[in-house]
Amino acid sequence: MAGPLEGIRVLDLSRILAGPWSTQLLSDLGADVIKVERPGSGDDTRAWGPPFLAREDGTPTAESAYFLCANRGKRSITVDVSSEAGQAVLRELAKTADVFVENYKCGDMRRYGLDYDTLAELNPRLVYCSITGFGQTGPYSHRAGYDFVVQAMGGLMSITGECDDLPGGGPQKCGVPISDLMTGMYASVAIVSALFERVESARGQYIDMSLLDTQVAWLANQASNFLVAGSEPRRWGNAHPNLAPYQSFATSNGALIVAVGNDRQFGALCGALDLGELARDERYTTNAARLKHRESLVCLLANRFRGRDTAAWLVGLEAAGVPCGPIHSIPQALSDPQVRSRGMVFSLPHGSGAIAPQIANPIKFSRSTVEYRRAPPVLGEHTDDILSRDLGWSADRISVLRKGGTI
Predict the structure, then answer these.
(1) Which candidate in 28, 32, 180, 390 is catalytic?
(2) 208 is catalytic
(3) What is the homologous superfamily of the domain 9-218+339-403 according to CATH?
(4) With contact defined as beta carbons under 8 Å apart, do 17 and 59 qualify?
(5) Which keywords appear in this protein's UniProt record, sorted alphabetically (predicted)?
């Protein structure tokens, strides 16, 4: 079976992460993604290294690991978007595209004649997605948006990190640019939804995606806690605001996490720790009671966990049906037998002659396929192919554009 988006063409004018993450997902699902890049330098993240991909003999390529994580499966064309000739090239490509994705500042696309209204006149079926830090409307719409800034402004950092009164306490950003990543995921859902709607309406539409909107949207239970109770959520470190015990514990040689989600699991935990009396103690019999008496409960559990090593505890807890797990480093996570058995790490031959390691798409269909047709492209790798095969332009016409610096 082909990918479910086979036959869909995406014109991708996005850079950095939120947009490229979205379009990589569309590519994995079968879409033909044409990545438009600046001649000479390309997507900013190509230079975001080290580390850079190396060939088998150890010689480095120009491809950063950062760029490799978000641009699999795409065809790269270099076009000077700021030039009239380059804008004409992109309008020609937009005529045959199903989706147009961009993350330029508000107003830039209109100034270039590449805004939704202009392109919709050429291609009424076009689904056009703009991704910015703060959206197309509102008092901050003119601001440039960065993941780190949005994590701070959107409330995430206020609930991430250790409590203020503990060593290392204070607001922390997430270890990956999660606002970018989640905006890319929401954008993909929006794009596919608009394509589905187009089946009936035969018309495209405009999608306005904002990093700040997305960050606020996925505050999830933390925002709901505040809206329902009116109390400001706090940082809990590795603990949970609504469940106990649901946190990390130190062992004799490291640490592990325990994730008790109900009273039955708490009873199983007590049995595995040989602390059966706690399961009968009215201070701990229900989750609400455990939250009220969290401090004393955690103290008792922490003392017991320090008595054995991590591996021994994990065997006992798993046998008892208590949700738990080790705290892996990234190398440990990527070499975990479950991760490997699910095919989450693989490699693709790269145009530079190197082999590009990749993290797989987690979607697994029963009939459709996830497609890994090519590694992240070398800058401008497919320029001639796209202009000649997709637009039918002659070699002479392409040569004129290249000599003029348009491509």
Answers:
(1) 180
(2) no
(3) Crotonobetainyl-coa:carnitine coa-transferase; domain 1 (3.40.50.10540)
(4) no
(5) Transferase
